[in-house]
Amino acid sequence: MLQPITRLSRKFHLCSIGAPLAACGVLALVWGRSLGWFLLLVSTAALIAAVLVAVHHAEVIARRVGEPFGALVLALAVTVIEVSLILSIMLSETLDSRDLARDTVFATVMIVCNGVIGLCLLIGALKHRVLGFRTEGTTPALAVLATLVTTILVLPDFTFSTEGPTFSDSQLIFAGVVSLLLYGVFIFVQTIRHRDYFLPEAEGVETRDERRPSTFAAGSSLLLLILSLVAVVGLAESLAPPIEGFVQRAGMPHAVVGIAIAAMVLLPETTAAIRSALRNRMQISFNLTLGSALASICLTIPAIVFTSIFLDLPMHLGLPAKEITLLALTLLLTTMTLSGGRATILQGTVHLVVFAVFIFTAMVP
């Protein structure tokens, strides 16, 4: 029985090493070329593999440094991938990317707060009936998230310095600085000042015996993580025109591009959050989900702000009325869910219904 498991583990280890190298090889093959169907499929597969392997190596580093640093490493890795995808598409001369950053950040918040949290609550509650978590760890993260998402995605609709749902350069710089400041304070609280608030509850938690990776293993994962991210950046730039062209030919709204980017980069983190929920470690699930949403806003926005100002790229930030309504409902619902310290399948179902409304109205506005 142990031999098949050992062989499977060995194969996965080889894939985690070979995938970044293969992705870089595919990048060298398609760089500067127009992608046909075959190269498009190969590039897409290589990009997905690089994303999955990048997050795997981030998890190895996370096990070395421990919680809640583990969730932080994973969130940062996913955000680097997301920023790379957004910037590569923004810098594509053939694409209209004024709404891309806004749509991607909004989609990330909706997917995390409704899709991922709802799925974790539903699956976890089906197995454990009632799920427990620390409100002193979830509510501060939600407070930071609500403040930033309102400032970045709602306030531009009501400012007068510029026309449309935009910020002026000084407002953009202010928003970027505030994002970094709040995120820095949150990380200080999460990892140093009140680290115990973000650890799982002691009672009713199923623990798992995981060996701490060696320094050599963690260092190797760091190098492979960097290599994977290089492949992601290059492949994303090559795939940007086909993604936009597919959305246009299908007659779908441009916001679908942002949803596709957010869904792709959040897939590995969603898997990790669901695994934690199945082990009745909901605090770890919330650390992963809320941490990724915070990192998406706090790190993506400053990077996009710098790029847009430096290269004089137009960028829309304010959401339309329909999206503001869904965002307000999401923040209210998430507040009610996370303020009780306990959750059942009902909360998970409600979150998933709101997520379904988001997806449907994005496809059929």
Automatic annotation (TrEMBL):
Chain ranges passing through the membrane: 12-31, 37-57, 69-92, 104-126, 138-160, 172-189, 216-235, 255-274, 286-311, 345-364
Record's GO cellular component terms: plasma membrane
Sodium/calcium exchanger membrane region domain ranges (all copies): 36-191, 221-363
Topology class, membrane: Multi-pass membrane protein
Locations listed in the record: Membrane
Keyword Transmembrane helix: yes
Keywords: Membrane, Transmembrane, Transmembrane helix
InterPro entries registered for this protein in UniProt: Alkaline_pH_Ca-Antiporter (IPR052946), NaCa_Exmemb (IPR004837), NCX_ion-bd_dom_sf (IPR044880)
GO MF annotation list: potassium:proton antiporter activity; sodium:proton antiporter activity
Name of the protein: Ca2+:H+ antiporter
Organism of origin: Microbulbifer rhizosphaerae
